[in-house]
Design brief:
Blueprint (H helix, E strand, L loop, with lengths): L3 E4 L3 H13 L3 E5 L3 H8 L5 E3 L2 H7 L4 E4 L6 H10 L3 E5 L6 H14 L3 E4 L6 H12 L5 E11 L12 H4 L1 H18 L4 E8 L5 E10 L3 E11 L6 E8 L2 E6 L2 E6 L27 H14 L10 H17 L7
The structure holds nicotinamide-adenine-dinucleotide.
Length: about 325
């Protein structure tokens, strides 16, 4: 029987706990040094509380861990868990440093444990639709596109880790990786990467624009920024032009504009409808529910865990780093 241990009970740990509850998958242990955060997540399932991820991995009655820690703590916990014989879900970005990437891949090979990375956009319904539509060829090939992810400054991170680039990688590694990863999933590695970035007064990248070139004529623009005013609403979406249609995700609404005929909203698979305490409507669990459902099915042996592998996530972080270099490096001053 699958028993999950959630390590890190902040923003994502809480979200994942709600998903496991909706999926009916037992979370038997949680870990967080912030007792009130640990309790809130533990209360969803009656899980036992540990003060650290290390203690949970060593002592808890779990078969898999779900690592929702600040990014600089992903690799050490993922490796320790696999060495302990546990399967692993680890949030994106999988890790930042090259030596950590190599260690995760080596440990995965040596232990044979299952590992999935939280590249959640690969499981987000509208993006899943776009991927399937592009792969099917029914609208012809992709000609060009724009992907964006913009928000007000995130303020929730424990210890302020998100705004310390040595811990999070900064905006580009933490937030922009979502779209970089999805574009890689959609079209593969770009042939050319050009980029420009806006930096704040301390030199940190707060906005990045990347232009990926594929072959002679296909261009994809990817934009991310997270220093918009507090009143700015979160905005993520895309506009992709294919030979026979344009597909647009704007304000959460997916629209197809065919070369012939009227625009329409494609029918999307119904999302799980049930109660949860994240926002009253399960759609607030979005792709998180989908990715964890896929993870749990993979743990049960229903399919291989092949959509968001460590190797894929690592390639996406490397591509982000290439973009940062193309934009002049992480910190200019
Ligand atoms: N997929 C997404 O859309 C998405 C969104 C937000 C964050 N994330 C990722 O999720 C991860 C966590 O981000 P967050 O926003 O939840 O951060 P957070 O700061 O809200 O939560 C992290 C938690 O980990 C705890 N923690 C720190 N060290 C610990 C240890 N040794 N053992 C146990 N707990 C420990 C902290 O006390 C904190 O509660 C990051 O990698 C982030 O990039 C992904």
């Amino acid at each position: 029987m699958i028993k999950i241990g959630i390590i890190g009970c902040g923003f994502m740990g809480d979200m994942h706990a709600a998903c496991y509850k909706a999926l009916g998958v037992p979370v038997t242990a949680v870990a967080d040094p912030r007792a009130d955060f640990a309790k809130k997540v533990a209360d969803k399932s009656g899980a036992r509380i540990y003060e650290s991820g290390e203690a949970l991995i060593e002592q808890a009655d779990v078969t898999a861990v779900d690592i929702c820690l600040p990014t600089d703590r992903h690799a050490s916990h993922a490796v320790a868990a696999m060495r302990k014989g546990l399967d692993v879900f680890v949030e994106k970005p999988i890790c930042i440093r090259e030596e950590e990437m190599e260690l995760i891949l080596k440990t995965e090979r040596e232990t044979g444990r299952k590992l999935q990375v939280g590249q959640v956009i690969r499981f987000w319904t509208e993006y899943v639709w776009l991927k399937e539509a592009a792969d099917s060829g029914r609208f012809g090939r992709v000609l060009c596109g724009e992907f964006r992810r913009l928000s007000a400054l995130p303020t929730w991170a424990s210890e302020g880790w998100l705004h310390r680039p040595e811990r999070s990688g900064g905006l580009a590694v933490d937030m922009h990786v979502h779209d970089v990863d999805f574009v890689r999933y959609l079209l593969g590695e770009p042939d050319t990467v050009t980029a420009r970035a806006y930096r704040d007064s301390s030199g940190l990248i707060q906005q990045i624009y990347e232009l990926y070139g594929y072959g002679n004529d296909v261009s994809i623009c990817i934009e991310a920024g997270w220093d918009y005013p507090p009143s700015f609403p979160f905005d993520a979406g895309f506009r992709v032009k294919l030979e026979k249609a344009a597909v647009v995700l704007n304000a959460g609404v997916l629209t197809v504009y065919p070369q012939q005929g009227e625009a329409y909203h494609p029918e999307l698979p119904a999302e799980y409808q049930g109660d949860n305490d994240v926002g009253g409507n399960i759609s607030s669990l979005g792709g998180y529910y989908n990715e964890l459902k896929y993870f749990v099915e993979g743990l049960r042996g229903e399919h291989p865990l092949e959509i968001a592998t460590a190797q894929e996530a690592i390639r996406s972080v490397r591509l982000v780093k290439k973009g940062i270099e193309a934009a002049g490096g992480l910190i200019l001053k």
